[in-house]
Amino acid sequence: MKSKIICEKCKSQETRKDGKRETDNRGLIQRYRCNKCHHRFVLNDGFKRMRNAPNKITLCLDLFFKGVSTRKIQDHLNAFYPHNSSHKTIYKWGVKYSNAISDYTDNLKLNVCREIQVDEMEYHRRKTRNRKGIEKNWFVDTIDCRTRYIS
User: Fold this and answer.
1) Rounded to whole angstroms, how far apart are CA atoms 5 and 33?
2) Is residue 14 classed as helix, strand or coil in its secondary structure?
């Protein structure tokens, strides 16, 4: 089943292909034209108006969420991509796509079992300037035994 392309301006389904646009980093991108309002547009595939290739962005996001620092990701990109991105840009990608995916994950229905494991950890940190000494805090996490979902 072929999905209909919807015009982003007038929401009409009467659209047609209208050539391709070539970019330096993303290659050829299909353009569309609305038959009602004659608006030209490209589909938003999650990388609209991004100046880097989708595989480069997803590589950076994968490394970022695995705990690699943004500067080490930048060094990693030096080996494979001619136009490097700054560590600040990589961080902004992490924030942008985290916010985008949180809208999706907040509405997920979890299929978890009835058994969870709970773990707590006490950690110490210095108090603020006004209060001297060490402040004790607790971190508590729970994990589903079957799915390994952490909450």
Assistant:
1) 10
2) coil
